[in-house]
């Protein structure tokens, strides 16, 4: 499989704290990689480093053969190829749902208004909120807002989607509606890196699980291997805590 995202010996410190320790891993085109691990293990930092929301101290990150630039227009261009969905939905509060989804493609991709709107409506339909297109984000439930955020990221036609704990701010009954959209994207062959506590999603949609602890990738395996026969004591301990609930 062709590599799309390559991390090579990536290190990151926050002051004294070494949050990413020599991380090397590859995400292939069309692969869904789920990153799990205890709080403070470096999962979100890893996710945010892939589109340079966090700078790194050493090592390299390449996306589709291009090394992540430090800053400037090259970075903005590369970022347009990397869709990002956060815990907080980060929608523009003063714009309608439809405008939220058309803004990026018109500004960055230079899409015409009619085409951008047509594409936005298709995507809103795909995530199940087309009937909310004229509303403001505050009028939507958290689950609906997060689905709009996913549509907004998809509207840029990204090569890879990064999702950083996309369901952790949601009420339990809204989690599945967002996970269903993510499972659909996985089935459609979207390359995804997902930081999540949702083990059901990892089992159902991931090609590979990365288990992180204390800034390192402790284990990489298929979901089947990882959940039934984890190799490291650290992973066994982590799974025993979360899978018994």
UniProtKB/TrEMBL annotation:
UniProt entry keywords in alphabetical sequence: Amino-acid transport, ATP-binding, Cell membrane, Membrane, Nucleotide-binding, Transport
Compartments in which it is found: Cell inner membrane
Gene3D superfamilies for this protein: P-loop containing nucleotide triphosphate hydrolases
Xref: Pfam families: ABC_tran
GO MF, any single term: ATP binding
Superkingdom classification of source: Bacteria
Membrane topology: Peripheral membrane protein
Main subcellular location: membrane
Residue intervals of the ABC transporter domain: 5-239
InterPro entries, per the entry: AAA+_ATPase, ABC_ATPase_HisP-typ, ABC_transporter-like_ATP-bd, ABC_transporter-like_CS, MetN_ABC_transporter-like, P-loop_NTPase
Similarity remark: Belongs to the ABC transporter superfamily.
Annotated protein name in UniProt: Amino acid ABC transporter ATP-binding protein
């Amino acid at each position: 499989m062709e590599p799309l995202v390559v991390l090579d010996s990536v290190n990151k410190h926050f002051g004294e704290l070494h949050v990413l320790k020599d991380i090397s891993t590859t995400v292939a085109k069309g692969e869904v990689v789920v990153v799990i691990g205890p709080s403070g293990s470096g999962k979100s930092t890893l996710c945010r480093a892939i589109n340079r929301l966090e700078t790194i101290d050493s090592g390299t990150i390449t996306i589709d053969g291009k090394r992540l630039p430090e800053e400037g227009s090259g970075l903005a261009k590369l970022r347009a190829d990397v869709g990002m969905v956060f815990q907080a939905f980060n929608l523009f509060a003063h714009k309608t749902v439809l405008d939220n989804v058309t803004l990026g493609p018109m500004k960055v991709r230079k899409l015409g208004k009619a085409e951008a709107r047509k594409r936005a409506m298709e995507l809103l339909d795909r995530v199940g909120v087309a009937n909310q297109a004229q509303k403001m984000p505050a009028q939507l439930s958290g689950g609906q807002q997060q689905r709009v955020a996913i549509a907004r990221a998809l509207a840029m036609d990204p090569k890879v989607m990064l999702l950083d704990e996309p369901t952790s701010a949601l009420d339990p009954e809204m989690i599945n509606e967002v996970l269903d959209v993510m499972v659909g994207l996985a089935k459609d062959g979207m390359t995804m890196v997902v930081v999540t506590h949702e083990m059901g999603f990892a089992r159902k949609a991931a090609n590979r699980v990365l288990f992180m602890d204390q800034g390192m990738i402790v284990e990489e395996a298929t979901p089947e291997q990882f959940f039934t026969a984890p190799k490291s004591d650290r992973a066994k301990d982590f799974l025993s805590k979360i899978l018994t609930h």
